[in-house]
Design a protein that fits this description.
single chain; mainly alpha; 7% strand
């Protein structure tokens, strides 16, 4: 049985984002909602199954998803090198984007600047190479946009 407190050991092992080179994938289904493939959690990648986690850890056919999660790591570095600041900003962006939920299902997630940067660049496996300090800051461009501009950017990228 999956239990919510299984993440406590992960919290105790958490390190500053700048001290993390690679994030291991782990099976942890309680915190990962249906419809999502992975979740960055304090330097770990949570996944639905042990096989998916093993596949990601062995770099088999999951390079784009791994890159998406690594972008979140670099975003946390850009947020004062703090997981707490990253998650706080993530929550604030999510709440603000919820205003558009009548126009877009899952607006809090899809219009979150952190997710917009990660999705826009997940297939560019060299995206993070362009940041010499290691910090991904493309989310700041999305954060400066209005919700309408974010929706337009999102729909231009993929039909809804």
């Amino acid at each position: 049985m999956n239990h919510p407190f299984r993440i406590i050991p992960l919290l105790l092992k958490a390190r500053r984002p700048s001290r993390i080179i690679d994030m291991p994938a782990l099976k942890e289904t309680f915190w990962l909602r249906k419809g999502y493939e992975a979740l960055t959690f304090f330097g770990f990648i949570l996944m639905h199954s042990a096989e998916e986690a093993r596949s990601m850890n062995e770099n088999r056919q999951m390079a784009a998803l791994k890159n998406h999660e690594m972008i979140h790591l670099r975003q946390a570095q850009a947020c004062g090198d703090s997981w707490l600041r990253f998650y706080w900003k993530y929550l604030v962006f999510w709440v603000k984007a919820q205003k558009a939920r009548s126009r877009l299902k899952n607006a809090g997630y899809l219009l979150n600047p952190f997710e917009m940067e990660a999705y826009a660049n997940m297939y560019n496996l060299h995206y993070l190479d362009r940041f010499t300090d290691g910090k991904a800051t493309g989310w700041k461009r999305y954060a400066s946009m209005s919700l309408d501009e974010r929706i337009q950017t999102l729909t231009a990228r993929r039909p809804m």
